[in-house]
């Protein structure tokens, strides 16, 4: 009985153990599957988040790029408006100067007229005093009756007419001068009113320019806060390709001119060598003639001592070298102090030098060397910009002139060294009037990989 109870107990325990083990295994497997599914779902969610963030980043990038493009467009529009305003200010200043000149002329004219009137007043007072002292008006009958002869009578009548005419002329001039003074004073008053109106317009234009500058400064401040440089996004791919093609064509033309100049110099060198050869031949011929003459004299006078000879007396072995017309230096493109040099600044590369305006106005910009204009127009970040292709000693060099207020040349134009090409300004991504000047060995490109320190080139 005890054994039976033991077997029954063992059977129950085994059955319970089997059931418990099966349930535990099933539960463990279920938990593991849920964890994997959760992890997969987590990865999928993370991937979705990454894709969503990438889309958002792309949208933000597009938005930032759109803002940058809008900033560049706004700066360009403001520069165009400021150019119009500056031109209006210059025109208004010219009007004011002309008005001041007219006012000065009127004041001088009034002074002259008043002085002449004062002098004539004295004359008229003297005439009136004389007539009063003589007892009134002059008796023409007495003058005529006092004539001694007919000729004397004619002279007396003529004199009386002359005096009367002079009196009339004095009075007429006196009246005319007084009328002229009144007219001049009226003109002066009108010119002063005109000047006041012009000064008011000038102040309005200056206020308008100040507002445009403030608006541009706000855009530049935003760009600096975002650490964005418009110079890094200067031109589109199509524009760059067009500039590169223009540079290639200009470089070919400049190279042809340079080779033609070298041929001319070579011909000049050969001509000089030929002249030098003929000169030496002539000197040698003259020397031989002199030797023959001396020998003949020795034969006629054998006892005389032979003259000393200096073989180098009439020879010149130092030929003049051909003129050196080549130069590796560039002309300084503008006067003024260099305010920023070539190299890294503000966390990015500054590919040129800046020459400040220094409180001056209408500072001319000149071509650093003779060459062909490959680009003259607006460039993002650089504002009004000029690119010129040169060939110096057989190699291509490109110069860039930026932030110009205006330029006076066009694409494809040939310019000479020192020729004025524009006026220093403040267009583009610029915080003050200056010239940004770059030098590139070879052609210019948007990456500016060929830029060199201009200080190694300019005089």
From TrEMBL:
<feature type="domain" description="M23ase beta-sheet core">
    <location>
        <begin position="348"/>
        <end position="444"/>
    </location>
</feature>
<dbReference type="InterPro" id="IPR050570">
    <property type="entry name" value="Cell_wall_metabolism_enzyme"/>
</dbReference>
<dbReference type="GO" id="GO:0004222">
    <property type="term" value="F:metalloendopeptidase activity"/>
</dbReference>
<keyword id="KW-0175">Coiled coil</keyword>
<dbReference type="Pfam" id="PF24568">
    <property type="entry name" value="CC_PcsB"/>
</dbReference>
<dbReference type="InterPro" id="IPR011055">
    <property type="entry name" value="Dup_hybrid_motif"/>
</dbReference>
<feature type="domain" description="Peptidoglycan hydrolase PcsB coiled-coil">
    <location>
        <begin position="110"/>
        <end position="183"/>
    </location>
</feature>
<feature type="region of interest" description="Disordered">
    <location>
        <begin position="269"/>
        <end position="345"/>
    </location>
</feature>
<feature type="compositionally biased region" description="Basic and acidic residues">
    <location>
        <begin position="269"/>
        <end position="295"/>
    </location>
</feature>
<protein>
    <submittedName>
        <fullName>Peptidase M23</fullName>
    </submittedName>
</protein>
<dbReference type="InterPro" id="IPR057309">
    <property type="entry name" value="PcsB_CC"/>
</dbReference>
<keyword id="KW-0732">Signal</keyword>
<dbReference type="InterPro" id="IPR016047">
    <property type="entry name" value="M23ase_b-sheet_dom"/>
</dbReference>
<feature type="coiled-coil region">
    <location>
        <begin position="33"/>
        <end position="123"/>
    </location>
</feature>
<dbReference type="Pfam" id="PF01551">
    <property type="entry name" value="Peptidase_M23"/>
</dbReference>
<feature type="compositionally biased region" description="Low complexity">
    <location>
        <begin position="309"/>
        <end position="319"/>
    </location>
</feature>
């Amino acid at each position: 009985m005890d054994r039976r109870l033991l077997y029954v107990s063992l059977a129950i325990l085994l059955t319970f153990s089997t059931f418990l083990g099966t349930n535990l295994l099933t539960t463990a497997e279920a938990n593991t599957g849920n964890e994997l599914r959760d992890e997969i779902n987590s990865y999928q969610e993370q991937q979705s988040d990454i894709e969503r963030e990438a889309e958002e980043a792309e949208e933000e990038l597009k938005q930032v790029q759109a803002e940058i493009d809008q900033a560049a467009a706004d700066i360009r529009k403001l520069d165009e408006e400021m150019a119009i305003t500056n031109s209006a200010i210059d025109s208004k200043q010219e009007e004011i100067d002309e008005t001041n000149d007219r006012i000065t002329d009127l004041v001088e004219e009034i002074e002259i007229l008043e002085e002449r009137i004062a002098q004539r007043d004295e004359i008229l007072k003297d005439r009136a005093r004389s007539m009063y002292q003589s007892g009134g008006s002059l008796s023409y009958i007495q003058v005529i009756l006092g004539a001694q002869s007919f000729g004397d009578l004619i002279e007396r009548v003529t004199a009386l007419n002359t005096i009367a005419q002079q009196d009339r002329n004095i009075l007429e001039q006196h009246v005319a001068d007084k009328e002229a003074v009144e007219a001049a004073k009226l003109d002066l008053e009108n010119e002063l009113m005109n000047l006041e109106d012009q000064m008011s317009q000038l102040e309005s234009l200056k206020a308008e320019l100040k507002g445009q500058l403030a608006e541009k400064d706000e855009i530049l401040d935003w760009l600096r806060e975002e650490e964005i440089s418009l110079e890094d996004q200067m031109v589109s791919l199509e524009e760059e390709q067009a500039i590169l093609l223009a540079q290639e064509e200009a470089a070919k033309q400049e190279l042809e001119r340079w080779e033609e100049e070298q041929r001319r110099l070579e011909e000049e060198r050969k001509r000089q060598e030929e002249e030098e050869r003929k000169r030496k031949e002539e000197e040698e011929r003259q020397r031989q003639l002199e030797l023959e003459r001396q020998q003949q004299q020795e034969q006629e006078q054998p006892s005389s001592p032979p003259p000393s000879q200096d073989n180098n007396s009439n020879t010149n072995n130092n030929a003049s070298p051909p003129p050196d017309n080549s130069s590796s230096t560039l002309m300084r493109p503008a006067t003024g102090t260099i305010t920023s040099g070539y190299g890294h600044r503000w966390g990015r590369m500054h590919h040129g030098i800046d020459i400040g305006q220094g409180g001056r106005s209408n500072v001319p910009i000149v071509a650093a060397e003779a060459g062909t204009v490959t680009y003259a127009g607006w460039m993002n970040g650089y504002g009004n910009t000029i690119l010129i292709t040169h060939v110096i000693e057989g190699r291509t060099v490109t110069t860039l002139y930026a932030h110009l207020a205006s330029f006076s040349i066009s694409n494809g134009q040939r310019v000479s060294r020192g020729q004025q090409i524009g006026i220093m300004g403040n267009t583009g991504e610029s915080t003050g009037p200056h010239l940004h000047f770059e030098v590139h060995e070879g052609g210019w490109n948007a990456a500016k990989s060929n830029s060199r320190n201009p200080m190694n080139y300019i005089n």
